[in-house]
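FIELD: query
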Amino acid sequence: MVARRVHPGAPPAFAMTPRVHPGPMLCYASLAMAEQSVHKWRKQRLVSLLATAQGAKTALIVTHNDPDPDAIGAAVGLAALLERRLRIEVAIACRGHVGRAENRAMVDELHIRLEPLCQLDVPRFDLVALVDAQPGAGNQPLGSLAPPAVVIDHHPLRPESSAVPFADVRPDNSSTSAIVTGYLRAARVRLSARVATALFYGIKTDTLGLARESREEDTLAYLYLQRYLDREALSRIESASVPPDYFRALDRALHETYSLDGLVIARLGTMSYPDMAAEMADFLRRLDGVRVIVAVGQYEGEVIVSVRSPESGIKLDELVQAVVRGDGSAGGHDHMAAGRVPAGLAGSPEATEEEMIRRFREALGLADLRPTPLLPRESDPE
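FIELD: result
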């Protein structure tokens, strides 16, 4: 199994002090050298993956709940590999919703069929693969339905993955779609514009177009895929239209947003789809002076938190795990993370929102500061 383990150490410190990451300055010569160095290693991983899938006639690829573009792109890419190299009949499934306008446009524009996992007879599939998630994680839907034979992910390694026949877990990578692109390149699979665009958009969203800290594998895949893109479809995905309800929800959220010395908290109340919290957190990343954004909302019996930071000095995944504790599920990366707890944890959904906010303020050492509203409420005097 390939995995870069996170070394245990002292408890996480969440003080908002910047940490500088120089980042690689990659030129074309260094990229060419990187290609040569990883080609043999990619081939070895491909051989192991295909050996695990050999003999299967049907395969089910499962993403994490409420899949994002990276999960969807990785699933589409892995399906193409299994179909082209092993002639396996593949289905892609998930639990939850594809709610964000761009994500829905991705599915529609690229004709991606996502099956509701609850409508499938999972044990009938010869092979089950889990992408952009791992066994034991709270945001993956397999549970006890079927153990995966294949796991491909870029989140921190979980101990449950060690029991999987093929587990390629790379926490240093910024996207799962880049890992899958490496398999397709090693297999010399000719990419369709549909598959290339799905993989590219998955990498682009998880790396902010490589603006966020990314690794050589992400950069190599990002550049390689550009020659095969459906650029018109990509443009329509990135400029997807939104309904009037979106702007009404945005207005409500902005009037319930306040800041405390670099921490910005947005309360969304009842959300029409779970991705709304992430969408709001992403929107507020551009706010001047912000260092950590926490968006909190309610959806179908849960309180969902989404956390972002334009800086790289705070491990947001560890922060959210410390806040959620054992009350729900949490995960992510240094720069983006999310969690969810039962809406009744503190009695009512509103009280649970307050409890989550209190924990974030306490973890960041801001419990005693007075919050400043971003916008005046309608009831506030002018």
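FIELD: remark
The radius of gyration is 21 Å.
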